[in-house]
Amino acid sequence: MGLSHKQVAKGRDVSNVEMVEQINNAIGAHGSWKLKLRVAMSSGSSEIDPDRACRDDKCPFGRWIHGDAIDPVTKQGKPYQVVRRLHAEFHQTAANVLRHAISARRTEAEQLFTGEFAERSEKLVRALAKWKGELL
């Protein structure tokens, strides 16, 4: 496992409990993207700007994973590195689905949604669950 029950990040204690809570929140929040993208595909519009959606550092989990709350040792670990990469890929693909959906390219949006987006979403959730399991 390699992680202690408390990790110190810039003078603050970040417990595994807090990390697990952030991971749980991320799993739920990223699950809601499916609904947002389905609505965008069916309506042809979205209140979410694809240029903002592609930014993996703007959602609450992204701000946390890119921020200073996680200690440098954890950031060097494989679980963190894998989740951070998959999270960025997730956002890029979600933004591409949105771009197609709001540009009257529903077929392309749906193909991307059921293919690449679904695969990246599943990989991200699996990686988050694995990281969570290592923290418990």
UniProtKB/TrEMBL annotation:
Domain Chemoreceptor zinc-binding, first and last residues per copy: 30-97
InterPro entries: Chemoreceptor_zinc-bind_dom
Gene3D superfamilies found in the cross-reference section: Aspartate receptor, ligand-binding domain
Origin: domain of life: Bacteria
Protein name: Chemoreceptor zinc-binding domain-containing protein
Organism encoding this protein: Sphingobium fluviale
